[in-house]
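Sample A.
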Amino acid sequence: MVATLRFLQFSDVHLDSRLTGSRLAWPREKRAQRIQEIAEAALKACRLAREHEVEALFIPGDLWDDEAISAETLARVIEAFESLDSIPVFIAPGNHDFCSPTSFYNEDVLRARGMRVWPKNVHIFRSHAFTTVRHPTRPEVTITGRAFVQNVSIEERLLQEPIPRPPASVSVLLFHGSWIEYAGRDRFEEGKLLTAPFSRAELLGQGFSYAALGHYHHYAEIVDDEGRIRAAYAGCLAGRYLSEAGPHFALLGELDDRGIVALEKIRVDERTIHDVEVDVTGAESEVSVRERIGQRLRECGARASDVVFLRLTGRLPRGLRASALTESFRHEYFHLAVADLTRPAYDLEGHDPRTTQGRFIQEMRRRIAAAADENERALLERALYYGLDALIQGKVEPIYEE
């Protein structure tokens, strides 16, 4: 019987991500705090590896965010890895922390800047081709990986052909790429790049005991026909964007030659992003709107330390703006962002087609129905309501934009 290998896995930390251009609309001071919290999550994960006395730490990519990582943050990470001492760390750079000649993965760059180099217990896969190394204290265990060398989309099916490697009782693959059957909410959101695609069949066909996967930001697992986990995305360690709503984990696992024997999800970040929708249709007063919003926020389970993105939808009487009634909730959470998608309760069905207003409604609804895509439909719908504001209220205010 093959002895198990105890490991910790995390990836897609995106250290020093700027957090700008987000629908969460982070204010400057909270954005700075969140950037520091994400770095601390990585350090906490390293402490977990030591506390649980794992035999390997697997990081399949996107440890930092492009080339934005600061020398200070990198120094803290390198120090954390060095403190693991005898625990080997295996890193397969992804499309964001790609391993280029000017990358911080290049020790010549670190030396030229007077920075601490990577410690001896860290193995970085620096080639775009797959290479295999043996575990330093468990020679029956091999780890195979590759690096992205630039942040570009790779359409090639890298797992379609067999990956050559020496025989081993337990073989681990570190791979940063897009599982085409993945159904997580971040697959297409926030401009997510589909790169190095592979299928379940292609991955299982490689015959690795286990594959530590990176690229997608929510936990997902691939099981074989016997129901054993043969690959998993840990997801990101801490949420940054709306597409990362929900809890996030590092993975503590044990594996043998046939896959995962035990797997535990461990949270290292105290905050959760909640994506909450409230339909305020039928609320006739400010009090009833606030009550409906408050009830839904209580139901979602958000804590004071959490981040809430509040989507307000539905139709309200003219002159009543739901977003203006959310201020009283802002102090209840670390951060509250609001997208007011409500519309005035204009009668779109009972219009008189002989009037200017009726003809306008009729024509705009015809265009909305014929729109080629969702973005065009949304634009035309906003135009419909702005036009009705002008016709009915005699003024137009930019209130239908997110």
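Sample B.
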Amino acid sequence: MTAMTEDQGKVLRLARLRRAATGVLAGLVAVFLITLTISDPPGWVLFIRAVAEAGMVGGLADWFAVTAIFRHPLGIPIPHTALLRTRKDEAAENIGKFIRDYILVPDEIAGNLARVNPARVIGGWLVEKGNAAHVAELLMAGVDNVLTRDAPELRTELRKLVETLLQDSDKSSALGRMMAEILRGGLGGAGFSQVVVELEAHIEANRADITQLVHDNSRWWISAPVDRQVANLIVDAVLSLLEDLRNPESDSRKAFEGRVFDVLKRLETSGALNAFLVGPDGASDADRLAGQITEAIGELFATLRPQADEKGARAEIEAALKRAAERLGRGLLDDPAMADSLNARIASVAEDLAHRHRDTIGGYVAATLRNWDTDLLIERFETEVGPDLQFVRINGALLGAMIGGGIFALERLLGG
């Protein structure tokens, strides 16, 4: 059902209920008038008259109250009527304050999020058939948007982002921690082992040059065969050390990693690594590093751009994104720690946003309502709440009728 059809349905329902409420009131008026035509009416007719009279009064009172919210009853400018029209700005301000003070409450938002458990909702949605693929399509569209942007425009945007991050002290510290973690991972993993392998191959390939270097720096009276033997011993010793370093389980490798990690930890905690990345003298160093990072990212995008244009590569990237979304969904469902972490992060962000922007949001709602056309505002309010107000009219008439009948019966009972 479209939005227009829904609005039309609401308008038709309001009209139908308004006719029903008016019909109840008209029926009570008709019954009351009919009882007046009976001369010397018996008791039961007087009872019906009392019921109709009280119901008519109740129905008229509620009709007046409901109508007075939106317009002047019968077009007569009675004081304190047409409230929404005459007090629109005040009503808009009160609605904005209500949203600010009672809806956008950080603690309430956090509590509601805890009951909803958004991590489980997200995880459940991601594992449903087709949703991960849909996420992958959206992400791929974002990748396309980035990779198809003009390089100068892209690099300008990246540079602004990087400079902002670097010039923020908290973010810079985070950058230092990130760089230390990257270095720890590189020096303690398979990447370092591969570097050692390449170094071994380079030394072996240049054994002759090393022998010549030893010979050139040895005493004149030492023979060439001895120089070669010394050079080979040096090369073999270095290769043996590198072979030991290549093994992640060796004592030499563990000792090396321990010393390197200690140095990185000192650099990180002392701020030296952060100062190296950002520089001690502000914007100029941040600008320099931002340029280097931006150039590196730009080259990466330039490399990925032609690959992303290939159909096979696009399908592979999209499939990888789909698998990542599915793994995320399963992780949120199966790993309580992961779900708790995401829930805590979502709650923290929501609380922060509510705390910082509740005045802005409340003010925006109030300003939006104030700027609405008065007739349009009244029409929308009446369409939304009008049907319930017509039930108020009907209930008022019926309640009045019951009260009238009860009072009449009580009078007869007490009066004999």
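B remarks: The first helix runs from residue 3 to 36. The CA atoms of residues 215 and 225 lie 9 Å apart.
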